Amino acid sequence: MANATLSAHDAESWSAKLKDTGFWAEWAALVGLVVLVIVFQALNPAFLSPGNITSMLLAAAILIVLAVGQTFVIATAGIDLSIASAMTLGAVVFGQAYTAQWGLALSCVAGVLAAAVAGLVNGLLTAWGKIADFIVTLGMLSAASGLALILSDGKPVTIIDPALLTLSTGRAGVFGYSFLIAVAVAIVAHVVLFHTRFGTHLLATGGSPESANAMGISTRRIKIAVYTISGMLAGLGALLLIARVGAAEPASNTSFLLNSVAAVVLGGVSLFGGRGTIIGPVIGALLLIALVNGLTLLGVSQFYQPLAVGVVVVLAALLTRFQR
């Protein structure tokens, strides 16, 4: 009798959750990903083939890394519009260093540091200059892109390095090395955000800067740190991109910026700060990649793909109004 009562209670509890809009807002990315997988697999059995899964995960690796960096910034109620340009700058600096025969290791360090410096400048201007993050990162978007073009003279640099290319060709089962690196980044970010003092201070800064300052938290240092982290991860994204395409390209791809913000929104991170998650943006990135990949397999014109992504993001943003 007790078990029957307990089961009835559990059923009522789940029924209430399913009727709660806030529940769907919390799990929008995961539910959307599951639905997309079911629909695309039904329409094209090749969608879940091992080769296509590996391809999607490799494509998702760069976006996951960028989305994690964007999450740190957005959790403080900021935004980094320069993340794609910082990635381009990092790629170009890597290419120039590699061409100058610095060696792979030093070239990687140079590329990541260049992007991190762009993030550091964003943080300094936002925290100490007290300039709106939107304006600062918008300016850096243009500045980093221009600097990349100047350094490279507008010419891509072909990179043929077996060790670097292994990131895109090597794999463990269906999981490419690039994707495994992205997962490692996400795990470290989760630990930092939810199991360290820095993460607590970061969320407090996003929730209420005034209260955080009153508690003795240096909100300026937190903001400088998160923009630097975003830049550093953009530099890592640059290395993964070079490994994938085999070249350091000076042309900035704005889709990385838009999709990084989209993944964070889909993942349920509050755009008003103070509330963050890492697994959400990771799932959001996988959802966006699955959406584009599925539409491509179905032969849908590339002209319609940005439209589909935009609709999904707007719906996700609408759902965030109901988050608890």
UniProtKB/TrEMBL annotation:
GO molecular function: transmembrane transporter activity
Top-level lineage group: Bacteria
Listed GO CC annotations: plasma membrane
Membrane topology: Multi-pass membrane protein
CDD domains named among the record's database cross-references: TM_PBP1_transp_AraH_like
Residue stretches spanning the membrane: 23-43, 55-74, 104-125, 132-152, 172-194, 224-243, 255-272, 279-297, 303-322
Subcellular location: Cell membrane
Keyword tags: Cell membrane, Membrane, Transmembrane, Transmembrane helix
Xref: InterPro entries: ABC_transp_permease
Name assigned to this protein: Ribose transport system permease protein
